[in-house]
Design goal:
Blueprint: H1 2-17, H2 20-70, E1 72-75, E2 78-81
Antiparallel strand pairs: 1-2
C-alpha cells in the first residue's frame, strides 16, 4: 500500500515539473487510457450476457422459421397457410 502511495506522489511530482503544453498532453493521454480501460472493463463484464442474448435470439428466430415452414405449403414463390385450406362456413339465410 505504501508503495502505491509513493508511486502516485512521484507521478504527481513529475507532472508538476512538466511544462504546461507537455502537462496537457500527458493529462490527455491519461484520460484516454482511463476511458479505454473503462470500455475494456465494461466489455468484459457485458460480453457473456451479450453472447447469451445473441444465441437466444438466433434460437428463437430459427424456431419461428421452422414453425412457418411446417404450417403451410410453398408453391413456387407463394406461401399458403393451412388455415386457408379450411372449408368456408355456409352463409346462413335469414328467415
Amino acid at each position: 500500500m505504501a508503495v502505491l502511495v509513493a508511486v502516485v506522489c512521484l507521478a504527481l511530482l513529475v507532472r508538476l515539473l512538466l511544462g504546461s503544453q507537455r502537462r496537457h498532453r500527458v493529462d490527455q493521454a491519461v484520460l484516454r487510457w482511463g476511458h479505454a480501460g473503462r470500455r475494456l472493463a465494461l466489455w468484459c463484464c457485458r460480453w457473456p450476457s451479450n453472447r447469451k442474448a445473441k444465441a437466444q435470439a438466433a434460437r428463437e428466430a430459427q424456431e419461428a422459421i421452422d414453425r412457418a415452414r411446417s404450417r403451410g405449403v410453398w408453391k413456387d414463390n407463394v406461401f399458403t397457410p393451412e388455415s386457408f385450406r379450411q372449408a368456408r362456413k355456409k352463409d346462413r339465410t335469414r328467415d
